[in-house]
TrEMBL record:
Coiled coil: none annotated. One of its GO terms (molecular function) is nucleic acid binding. This is Integrase catalytic domain-containing protein. InterPro entries: RNaseH-like_sf, RNaseH_sf. Transmembrane segments: none annotated.
Amino acid sequence: MIAMNFVICLPKTLGKFDSIWVVVDGLSKSAHFIPVRIDYNAEQLAKVYVKEMVKLHGVPLCIISDRGTQFTSKFWRKLHDELVHNSLLVQASINRQTGSQRGLFKY
């Protein structure tokens, strides 16, 4: 389970970030503070989440957010899309490295 919230309307950094995305992992009780921009959409946030959080804590089972159900639903969909995309890239890379001629999916 993760809880996420945003600290917005901060002065812009050199990287043009004006907000901080606060993500708290419920299991480890660790908090992560990720610089973002106020205009990031669910797809951009999902990419940032995969890059910054999945490698540390894995895929969340539950998301708690005060941004509303519409945002959370979009974020879940985009997170899933990003994870599937990354999984296919990894599998294709493994197939190239091993010289495998098999398809990406095994049945």
